[in-house]
Amino acid sequence: MPLYLVRHSRVAASGLCYGQSDVPLAASFADEAAALKRQLVQTFGAQLPPVLCSPSARCVQLAQALDMRVNLDARLMELNFGAWEGKSWAELDGPEARHWGDHWQTVAPPHGESLAELISRVDECIAGFPAGDHLLITHAGPIRVLWHQFSGLTLEQAFACPVPHAKLIVL
Asked: What is the CB-side half-sphere exposure of residue 37 using CA atoms within 13 A?
């Protein structure tokens, strides 16, 4: 089953830990959406496969700019950073954040979600897919989980890979 993934457009939240928080889109949004639309037409023609979208505003706004009809699925949301949501990474620089950074595969941010929980909900989301192509509009975290699962990359390798904004990724 081919799986097509798109990360939301760039955001105007430099230096922030924003996970599941809604943040504004960057000024480059319209150009990114137009380029993605051309890429989707080139790949699919006029008939897109079923589209599942994270309910985060940055994903929904991209889908709306592309005139897509989507089904929203909260299991495609980014990692929940709990008490760290909306704070600057500089503000979070301390022993607790360094501990999480050193043990990101097993430790959750305070009142947040662990990597195992993210993996579990992404697995649950795609487990029931019928045969055929599927397009997901989501975030870097879920995309890296899927890279790990579909391409044989280790978690370290998958989470070290940059995930482009508003570009079609094929697994």
From this structure: 13
How far apart CA 100 and CA 44 sit, in angstroms, is: 41
The span from the CA of 160 to the CA of 14, in Å, is: 19
Collapsed DSSP state (helix, strand, coil) of residue 169: strand
Asked if 8 contacts 169 with a C-beta cutoff of 8 angstroms, the reply is no
Q: What phi and psi values does residue 168 have, to the nearest 5 degrees? A: -80, 130
The predicted model scores a pTM of: 0.96
Query: Does the domain at residues 3-170 carry the CATH identifier 3.40.50.12780?
Result: no
| Half-sphere exposure (Cβ direction) of 61: Cα atoms closer than 13 Å | 15
Q: What is the pLDDT of residues 40-77, one digit of tens each?
A: 999 999 888 999 999 999 999 999 999 998 999 999 99
Q: Beta-strand (E) ranges in the chain? A: 3-7, 16-17, 51-53, 71-72, 87-88, 134-138, 168-170
